[in-house]
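User: I've been trying to design a sequence by hand for this structure and keep getting stuck. Would you show me what you'd pick, starting by listing the structure so we're on the same page?

Assistant: Good idea, let's start from the same input. This is the structure you sent:
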């Protein structure tokens, strides 16, 4: 990564000790099956972020003053499984440092590691997935850590809510909980879907956003675009409501595949990230103490025996 700080912010807002927020880049694209390039997503996102104006009109805040620490990128890529383990370890390390942890991918397989870490640290976790694809395959192309399997584990171990789905394989119907799935074609004619989705959530919510959840008319630069997606303001309305009504414990954004001839997608990703931070901290002063409210008693406990866990000091 050529970027030294997030969005070019001053050093006083970018040091780990002074930052409430941690941003972990994961430039990984090892299992995508159509358009490659998600490994270039974090750098394009960071470059676009440097060109944002950092006053958010809607919330009347400058959230970067809460402090945003740009962590070293996770570059492990010897196998999908080793990448997931590395993402899990780094994510959990920063949760335990009492930070609001955010991750920018990379393809959606990175979320297996991020969700695992948050699930080990927070009780009764809801995973809110905004995505065009169900990503519920137990295994794909010989790996359980493929991007097509991004939320299978979450479907088994957390309260998974899926929003914007409009593409899936028939095998995924055997796993999907349709009572907690909001299909794009239904959302288009249902004015109550936002409230219905929030009503299904527990108090602690982790958000994973695959950028192909957006309609390709506003987000063309993603690996597997699908017509009929979310638009900008409806997405912000929904996310703001989630942040206001629930304890959002962290989030990741994935699947930006930058196109050198089309920069608006990079900028949308940058603005989306900043808006989500603005919603999280809109009522907080920069000098307020931050408590991420994770369950410290659970951190040393291996909640699922198949997961590797260790004490990150």
């Amino acid at each position: 990564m050529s970027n030294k700080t997030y969005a070019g912010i001053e050093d006083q807002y970018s040091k780990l000790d002074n930052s409430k927020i941690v941003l972990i880049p994961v430039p990984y694209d090892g299992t995508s099956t159509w358009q490659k390039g998600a490994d270039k997503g974090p750098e394009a996102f960071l470059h676009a972020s440097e060109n944002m104006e950092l006053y958010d009109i809607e919330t009347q805040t400058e959230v970067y003053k809460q402090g945003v620490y740009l962590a070293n990128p996770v570059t492990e890529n010897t196998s999908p499984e080793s990448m997931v383990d590395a993402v899990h370890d780094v994510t959990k390390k920063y949760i335990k440092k009492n930070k609001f942890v955010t991750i920018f991918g990379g393809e959606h397989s990175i979320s297996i590691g991020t969700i695992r870490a948050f699930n080990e640290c927070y009780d009764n976790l809801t995973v809110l997935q905004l995505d065009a694809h169900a990503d519920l395959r137990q295994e794909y192309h010989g790996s359980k850590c493929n991007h097509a399997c991004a939320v299978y584990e979450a479907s088994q171990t957390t309260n998974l809510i899926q929003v914007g789905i409009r593409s899936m394989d028939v095998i995924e119907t055997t796993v999907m909980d349709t009572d907690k799935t909001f299909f794009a074609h239904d959302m288009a004619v249902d004015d109550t879907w936002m409230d219905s989705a929030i009503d299904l959530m527990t108090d602690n919510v982790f958000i994973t956003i695959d950028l192909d959840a957006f309609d390709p008319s506003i987000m063309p630069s993603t690996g597997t675009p699908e017509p009929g997606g979310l638009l900008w303001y409806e997405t912000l309305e929904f996310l703001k409501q989630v942040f206001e009504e629930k304890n959002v414990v962290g989030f990741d954004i994935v699947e930006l595949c930058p196109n050198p001839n089309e920069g608006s997608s990079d900028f949308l990703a940058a603005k989306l990230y900043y808006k989500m931070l603005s919603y999280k901290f809109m009522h907080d002063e920069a000098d307020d103490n931050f408590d991420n409210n994770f369950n410290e008693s659970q951190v040393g406990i291996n909640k699922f025996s198949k997961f590797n866990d260790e004490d990150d000091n």
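That's my pick for every position. To get oriented when you compare it with your attempt: The first helix runs from residue 41 to 49. The two ends are 25 Å apart (CA to CA).
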